[in-house]
From TrEMBL:
SMART domains in the cross-refs: AAA
Organism (species): Parafrankia colletiae
PROSITE patterns tied to this protein: ABC_TRANSPORTER_1, ABC_TRANSPORTER_2
Domain ABC transporter, first and last residues per copy: 2-233
Domain of life: Bacteria
Protein keywords: ATP-binding, Nucleotide-binding, Transport
GO molecular function term, any single one: ATP hydrolysis activity
GO cellular component, one term: membrane protein complex
Protein name: ABC transporter
Residue ranges crossing the lipid bilayer per the database entry: none
Pfam families: ABC_tran
InterPro entries registered for this protein in UniProt: AAA+_ATPase, ABC_transporter-like_ATP-bd, ABC_transporter-like_CS, ABC_transpr_LolD-like, MacB-like_ATP-bd, P-loop_NTPase
């Protein structure tokens, strides 16, 4: 998969050719320096924009040439998103935020499922609270429950712990790990943090829009060491 912005001599290859597959029920971290193509990779994988060349296949369906309406429906129904900035609606309660993807899809949220998801993320007693009345970690937990509500094919997480302190980040990462181990979810997470990457099954390293390497069963120390040598890998 490749993604180029602009034309002619002014064009920029954000992705210069990335090939990756993510098996169901696995946790993958995507890492690399600034400008390596991490965000563009996630954007293309989510169907937010098509690749310039190559294909994007999600849950067995080739979505590359789908029109925007169809891709929007896909994102509502088959992809769960977790962002660094939480992206909760400030005027909706925790329970209403969790059920929002279903309402946008024209479905009535199942109150039992919404309650069960909030219980799962440790916020059963905060269902009626607005985001302003919750901590950053609690808001991210609501975001994870929201990502799970439609039983998506994949959860895409973009720096989900970037705005959290280390202790709160660890609890959020354990929750994402549990989504994989206990619910069989597939998680793809962009991160710059070796400690966060160590929660994954595999780390995919990007440099200059290309895959520079991968690591299975990562540890924080091993990931940090590989990040320091990415230039050597590309060379």
């Amino acid at each position: 998969m490749a993604r180029t912005y602009g034309e002619g001599t002014g064009s920029v290859a954000a992705l210069a050719g990335v090939s990756a597959a993510f098996a169901r029920g696995t946790f993958t971290a995507v890492m690399g320096p600034s400008g390596s193509g991490k965000s563009t990779f996630l954007t293309c994988a989510a169907g937010l924009e098509p690749p310039t060349s190559g294909r994007v296949v999600l849950d067995g369906a080739d979505i590359t040439d789908w029109d925007e309406e169809r891709r929007t429906r896909l994102r509502r129904e088959r992809i769960g998103f977790v962002f660094q900035g939480f992206h909760l609606m400030p005027y909706l309660t925790a329970a209403q935020n969790v059920g929002l993807p279903l309402r946008l899809a024209g479905r009535r949220p199942d109150r039992v499922r919404v309650s069960a998801l909030l219980e799962r993320v440790g916020l059963g007693e905060r269902a009626g609270h607005l985001p302003a009345a919750m901590s950053g970690g609690q808001r991210q937990r609501v975001a994870i429950a929201r990502a799970l509500v439609a039983d998506p094919a994949v959860i895409l997480a973009d720096e989900p712990t970037g705005a959290l302190d280390s202790a709160t980040a660890a609890s959020v990462l354990e929750l994402l790990r549990g989504c994989v181990d206990e619910l069989g979810q597939t998680v793809v997470m962009v991160t710059h943090d070796p400690v966060a990457a160590a929660y994954a099954d595999t780390v995919l390293f990007l440099v200059d829009g290309r895959v520079a390497g991968r690591m299975d069963r990562p540890t924080a120390t091993a990931v940090a060491g590989q990040l320091a040598r990415l230039d050597e890998w590309v060379a």
